[in-house]
Amino acid sequence: MSGAKSQAAQTVGDLRTLVARRVGIGKRVALLASDEALVKSLESNQCTVLVDPAGRQAVLDFRPEVVVAFDGLLSEGARGLQGLRQLTGFAHLVLSFANAASSTALLKALTGHGVVTAHSEKDVRAWLRGEGFVVSSRDVVLTGHEHSSLSADTEAALRQLFEQLNPDAAADRLLLVARPGVQASPVEFTAGLTTAIVIGDDATALEGTVRSVCGQLQKPLELLVVSSLDQAKLDEITRQAKGRAGLTLHAYAREDGSTLARTNRALSRARGQYVCCLEGGELLDRSHLSLLVKALEGGTVAWAISPSSPPVSAPFGVADWLEAGAVQRGRYVVDRQRIGAFAFQYADGLELAEAIFFARMAAVFSPAVVGGLPTFDTPRKPKSDRAAVREALAARALRTLGTVNEQLVDAPRVSLGAEIESRLEASNPAAARVFGQGRELVARVVDAARKAREDAER
What's the burial of 208, exposed, middle or buried (CB within 10 Å: 0-12/13-18/19+)? Predict the structure, then answer.
């Protein structure tokens, strides 16, 4: 993913224009397809176009600067790309293909309708990397809405769920531009490894958190420390982490940017299956990570949360945790294998970033809340106002398909008398006292009548 730029979504009607823009002006272009409109668009950019070349020799003789290809090139998977680099030399590749993760394709498959051949972006990038290409830009392409046979509400909820699991589910097609070059393989998760990410610039606070992580019972453990401090100072702070059994240290000095921006960068470097993100000044009980990881290993959930002080709702209710402000990223551990393509990153620049991520996770993945005493201490209480979170997420509301069990749960019984008395107390305390005295009198009369009936029966 390194170096790739994600561009704004384009409609499918703009695909030809987008391809021509990515090709540039005055290039020799080998177009591995027959599309008269695209040819005209390229030629309007003063490009010389070889259309649907008859064979390898025709491409070699043409010596293209850019190769434009579509799904047909990938019809045989990686084999379609094999030898392309040797055939085209240093030409760039502009490649558009149907996205296998698109919500439209998934809905068609779920409802039993035929789907077009599509590919996953992860696979295509791996094939390109294997043939000596580096992806330099990326665009998503949207088609017109194709209504499925499902009810509109159900279809909308499913599309929303797909997009929550994978932000690129809205993209029907992808357009990648690749240039010849060598790129390191993306970081692969190491099963069973826990990564603790610590971001901070205050030396004292940072050292306290690093010591806290070094004392964790959880092993094996990877520690990533990111700071704007110079290398010598950071080496001094992380000295106690070096050489510890079961702990691997990676320290990144002189790294600028906001705390959340650096957290996001660190997440791309982390190798752990289980990840906990911390900020300088936060302290952990020795069992913090081990208890959370144990809860994940012993169940099927995607994230585990440590208890708060004072305790928040049981069973888990996201509204209560938001109300309590207990949404700090160090409070929980995420199993990155179980969240799939869900975007594990924080909205840099927003005060509500931690609350938004917490709510997004809770909308899709039910967490395990560890019982017992609190194991996480922090001086921070991030903004987490429920109304503000709802407003911030208005474009992508958190409503998902509920379960039948949730809809069948009986509503709690409400005492009408108690409710009236409570509301009177808030508006007119004197009237509330009179009402309360009346309730007590009625209760005594009813009780006396019950006893009289019981005596008569005896």
Answer: middle
| Summary mean pLDDT of the chain | 87
Nearest to 164 by CA among 448, 357, 315, 336: 357
The label of the residue with tokens 């690129």 reads 168
Q: Are 363 and 311 in contact (CB under 8 A)?
A: no
| Residue closest to 288 by CA, chosen among 305, 274, 273 | 305
Burial of 99-132, coded b for 16+ CB within 10 Å and e otherwise, reads bbbbbbbbbbeeeeeeeeebbebeebbebbbebb
Q: What is the rounded CA–CA span in Å between residue 309 and residue 324?
A: 9
The owner of tokens 């903004």 is 383
Average pLDDT over residues 362-384: 94
Distance CA 158, CA 363 (A): 13
Q: Crossing angle for the helix pair 416-427 and 429-457, nearest 10 degrees?
A: 160
Instruction: Dump strand ranges (E) for 99-162.
Output: 133-142
Residues in contact with 368: Cβ distance below 8 Å, sequence separation at least 6, in sequence order? 295, 296, 299, 301, 303, 304, 305
Could you give the 3-state DSSP secondary structure of residue 37?
helix
Confidence band for 5, pLDDT divided at 50, 70 and 90 = very low
Q: Sign (positive/negative) of CA torsion 358, 361, 363, 367?
A: negative
- Decide if 234 contacts 253 (C-beta within 8 A): yes
* Structure-block tokens of residue 433: 């006292």
DSSP state of 78: G
Tokens, residue 144? 């017109």
- Contact present, 29 and 39 (Cβ < 8 Å): no
Q: Determine which helix (DSSP H) or strand (DSSP E) holds 334, and give its type and residue range.
A: strand 332-335
Crossing angle between the packed helical segments 152-165 and 103-110, to the nearest 10 degrees: 120
Beta strands in 75-220 (DSSP E): 92-98, 133-142, 173-180, 190-199
Three-state secondary structure call for residue 84: helix
Cross-strand bridge partners of residue 11: 142
DSSP 8-state code for residue 25: S
What does the alpha-carbon distance between residue 129 and residue 182 come to, in Å, rounded to a whole number? 7
Q: Which of 277, 381, 363 is nearest to 327 (CA)?
A: 381
* pTM assigned to the model: 0.79
| 409 residue type, one letter | V
- AA letter at 24: G
Q: Radius of gyration (Cα) for the chain, nearest Å?
A: 30
Single-letter amino acid, residue 81: L
Give the sign of the dihedral formed by CA 4, CA 173, CA 23, CA 127: positive
Judge whether residue 321 has pLDDT over 70. yes
- How far is Cα 448 from Cα 255, in angstroms, rounded to an integer? 78
Enter the DSSP assignment of 302: S
Res. 297: pLDDT tops 70: yes
